[in-house]
Design brief:
By secondary structure, the protein is mostly beta strands. Helix content is 2%, strand content 43%.
Length: 169
């Protein structure tokens, strides 16, 4: 029902203090934030490779949706994602370029726009010049999801050359 745009208002958070600073608050004036591309361009192509540590915060103003039951699909990030909807923390997912779903049911405003905030924390050293959101994201409707957010535990890891290995617990 709503496609998250490729270009998003962006705030860099080198020391991962945005949660304590309330970067998810509606009251923050983000009118002059820079805009960065997400899935259509790498950080390297945008001259952002100096941001190898910390987090990036995206703020998305979503128009009123005619549904109470909705979810967010985050197509893939580099490599930990946390999501807030209208200042309410939803949860997190971790893993490079993996899709994650978050339940927005009961968090969307009936009377106006909604603020969706996505924090992507970068861990490790990316050799391919990526960062932040790396695949498209969108809001969808349908039956309510079973879980509000994905499990925070990482089950697989990406090895050099693109191989995937299951993590033994």
């Amino acid at each position: 029902v709503y496609k998250i745009p490729n270009k998003l208002k962006t705030m860099f958070d080198q020391f991962n203090t945005g949660n304590q600073m309330g970067y998810y608050n509606k009251a923050i004036n983000d009118r002059k934030y820079i805009q960065t591309e997400t899935f259509k361009s790498t950080w390297d192509e945008q001259g952002l490779l100096g941001y190898r540590a910390g987090s990036v915060w995206y703020r998305i103003r979503v128009p009123k949706l005619d549904t109470k039951c909705a979810g967010l699909l985050v197509g893939g990030v580099d490599n930990i994602v946390r999501v807030w909807c209208n200042e309410k923390y939803i949860g997190m997912g971790r893993g490079f370029a993996r899709p994650f779903t978050f339940d927005l049911t009961g968090l969307l405003n009936d009377n106006g726009e909604n603020l969706l905030v996505i924090q992507v924390q970068r861990r490790g050293n990316s050799e391919i010049g990526t960062g932040g959101i790396v695949y498209p994201c969108f809001i969808f409707t349908g039956p309510q999801l079973e879980k509000r957010a994905p499990d925070g535990e990482l089950e697989y890891r990406l090895l050099p050359g693109g191989a995937i290995e299951k993590i033994k617990k």
